[in-house]
Amino acid sequence: MLQKSLAAVVGAVVAVAVVMAWQALTHMIDPPPTGMNWNDAAAVTAFMRAMPAWKFAVIVLGYGLAAFAGGWIASLVAKGRGWHAWVPAGLLLVGTFLNISTLWHPTWFPAACILTILAGAWLSGQVTTKKA
Q1: Is residue 6 part of a domain?
Q2: pTM for the whole thing?
């Protein structure tokens, strides 16, 4: 049980690291405006409303990759499939709900995030062959 709990924690850390790295990469490729005040809710909302749909789609893809990576690593640490692989996805879903409740997003974004996170977690279980 300790190994599976540790696997869940490691998977969650990996998932968060993937999201952070993905966000950093997307900001490097297409940086936000110079001097953007991320503490100004109105400025952030205006920035996000002006973002093209493809940027939101890239963010959704990053969440799916994070769910996959976190679940896969959790399965490797636990040496098999199990609940531990779904913990990173659960953490990502909580983060998504918090993000959506505090910032403006297009109407399709929440459903796309949820489906992509669940698909990434499910796929991570499919590539892990040994049952826990």
Answers
A1: yes
A2: 0.89
